[in-house]
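Pipeline run #58 for the internal structure catalog. This entry was flagged by the ingest filter as a single-chain record with no existing model, so it goes straight to prediction. Upstream metadata was stripped on purpose; only the residue string is passed forward. Reviewer on rotation: M.T. Logging verbosity set to normal.
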Amino acid sequence: MMNILARSNRSTLEQFSWSNALLAFDYDGTLAPIVADPARAEMRRSTRDLLRELARLFPIAIISGRAHADVRKRVRGVDAEVIGNHGLEPWDASPRLSAEVRRWLPCLRRRFAPLSGVRVEDKAFSIAVHYRDSRQKKKARAAIAKAIAALGDVRVIGGKQVVNVLPATAPDKGIALERERSRLRCDTAIFVGDDKTDEDVFALDQPGRLLGIRVGRSRKSAAPYYVASQRAVDPLLRALLELRREALRLRRAAR
């Protein structure tokens, strides 16, 4: 992996910034810092201000594991398309998938009731099992894996002290990004994410068309580029803003 903010990679960032690009971001751990209580995850004011400025120059999409309504509330004031539930909402949201998730809830809640620090979050079209507050994380992970296996054919996405459970037929973030890029008629896309669910985008492996940037370096990631930490997202947004403004200035001067 290469640091996208390194001087040697400036030309790559410039190439995408000057193109007809879609900017897409995960929320938790990318636009907002990871916090102990997910309900309190908020963007810094500086990030929100930069994102608002970028939305005047690029089409923006937020592709999150959170429920669609939850993400919309958190990015209020930013002109961005919102895709929730790991790529499922709003396009593939249906009563059939919601009913499937509702069948899982009683079983999971019953199994995890004796486990301190394990919490089941109902996101209507998926379930997130959080174990950040558990003091016995190894035991919690084993219990979660066993309970999910009993559900049958489901899609499981790991995360930072959370396990997400979705219907097997649900689309992933990679599909969501491609759909959004096509809908907005963008030639290229820049995607920034930090977690396992974002690997569905990084694995698309489309040099020249997709710039995948992971928050935090990881040898296990398919992303070719990274920024060092969540705090480095603001400098990345600032660089994109500067490069886009420069491109527009040069285009106007060439007329």
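catalog note: The mean pLDDT is 91.
catalog note: Residues 32 and 43 are 4 Å apart (CA to CA).
status: ready for reviewer M.T.
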